[in-house]
Amino acid sequence: MCYTVVKDGDKMADYKEIDRMLKNNCEITDLGYNKGKMRNLLLDLLEYRVDNFKYVSKNDYSYLLKIFDYFPYYFQENLQNKKEFYLRIKNIRNKVKDLLVQKPGNISKNSCHFQFLKNLIDNLETISLSFLYDYIDKYDGSKYDFINFLVFEIKRIDLLEDALRRFPYIVNFENKEGNSLINNVIGKYIEEVDKYTDNE
């Protein structure tokens, strides 16, 4: 068994157990907690780790990014209080942004801790935008699909502009091949406009 039984109502023990399971590549859905409880525990764990983040630590924080693999499962259905979750995620994002800005001068931007924070803020911004543009019920973790949704399904490029203004780190999103998602989407948009104008 990959998990231990936690005394009911012990929130700190709950998210420490989730933390341990993520570190050991265990399936946190095996805990059997309801989605509402898990949503809160995942955000509590993330906030706790961000609040206690140290650049000069031997800790490997990259396992925390696995949390975002569970967001589609825990956040897609029966989600009440979207605004509350959006504000919590935005608060965590702001803390990560402060950590990035306050990076000590002796820490390289290529360091594993700095790269972790960049990946973390990318994921937090995608989730924040999904809440903001009412995409959370369709969110599957794909930044590319989300940007496509804004441009091609809603057909409002101004939403992409607004997203870029609110969350400038989304310009760093890349697809699996390492190409800029923004460049790909804009290229596809231009192709669609060309097709449209050729047909007139």
Provide tags for this entry.
200 residues, mainly alpha, 8 helices, 60% helix
Instruction: Give the low-pLDDT segments.
Output: none
User: For the report, how would you describe the main beta sheet?
Assistant: none
* N-to-C CA distance: 64 Å
Number of helices: 8
Radius of gyration: 19 Å
Q: What percent of the residues sit in helical stretches (DSSP H or I)? A: 55-70%
Structural class by sheet pairing and helices: mainly alpha
Account of the 3D structure:
60% of the residues lie in helices and 0% in strands. With 200 residues, the chain is an all-alpha fold. Helix 1 packs across helix 2 (35-51).
Helices, strands, pairings?
Layout: H1 11-23, H2 35-51, H3 67-75, H4 82-101, H5 112-132, H6 143-153, H7 157-166, H8 181-198
Helix pairs in contact: 1-2, 2-3, 2-4, 4-5, 6-8
Question: Brief description of this entry?
Answer:
By secondary structure, this protein is mostly helical. Helix content is 60%, strand content 0%. It is built from 8 helices and no strands.
